[in-house]
Amino acid sequence: MARRSCKGRGHSLEVIAMLNILIPVDGSSHALLAVHHAVRLVHAGLRARFVVANVQESATLYEMVVAHDPEVLEKVSEGAGLDLMRPAVALLEAAGQKVEKEVATGDPAHMLIEIVERFGCHAVIMTAGTGGGLRAALLGSVTQHLVDHSPVPVTVVREPVAPSEEDL
Fold first, then answer.
1. Nearest CA to 89 among 98, 77, 76?
2. Which of 119, 120, 123, 124 is nearest to 104 (CA)?
3. Cα separation, 148 vs 141, whole angstroms
4. What CA–CA distance (Å, rounded) separates 109 from 6?
5. In terms of pLDDT, which residue wins out, 30 or 100?
6. Separation of alpha carbons 124 and 115, rounded Å
7. Other CB atoms within 10 Å distance of the CB of residue 102
8. Cα separation of the two ends of the chain
9. pTM across the whole model
10. Residue 19 per-residue DSSP state
């Protein structure tokens, strides 16, 4: 990534020519809100590359016993993750953006922070929870963990709220 140094008034400011931004997705249409937000930012002039990531749960004991082969489980997990990312990747690529894909296995909150560090991401754009009900009123646990522990800024995208009759 190209970096330039700007000096002025006795201060040195490092300017990053292109941001690496992580967008975690779980395959839900709700998660695509973060992708749509990223595309709007790009259309407004943001220069960025995107890492779209999906974190699969670790295999259960039953799956390990039935599969007999850890490589088979790994391939199935990776295939599922890539399939769940397909709509997000397609939206970003249709907007002319460079996209890297990453499928990880394990605890989503910790794996996403590891992905931020491994890919040198400068920011995260993600949705709050999975949408709907009480969960929509609160940040999801993974989102909350990233807000609290991410080494980079996290933008949380919420579903647009329809105006009430009182607002009209």
1. 98
2. 119
3. 10
4. 35
5. 100
6. 10
7. 20
8. 47
9. 0.78
10. E
Q: Are 87 and 32 in contact (CB under 8 A)?
A: yes
Average pLDDT on 53-57 reads: 90
Q: Name 83's Cβ contacts closer than 8 Å, sequence gap at least 6.
A: 27
Q: Using CA atoms, how far apart are residues 35 and 21, in angstroms rounded to an integer? A: 11
- C-alpha to C-alpha distance for 114 and 104, rounded to whole angstroms: 10
Angle at 132 between CA 84 and CA 44, to 5 degrees: 65
- Write out the two tokens for 58: 């670790």
Q: How crowded is residue 23: how many other Cβ atoms within 10 Å of its Cβ?
A: 28
Res. 81: pLDDT tops 60: yes
Instruction: State the Cα torsion 25-92-45-13 to the nearest 10°.
Output: 50
Phi, psi of 14 (to 5 degrees): -90, 125
8 A C-beta contact, residue 77 and residue 111? no
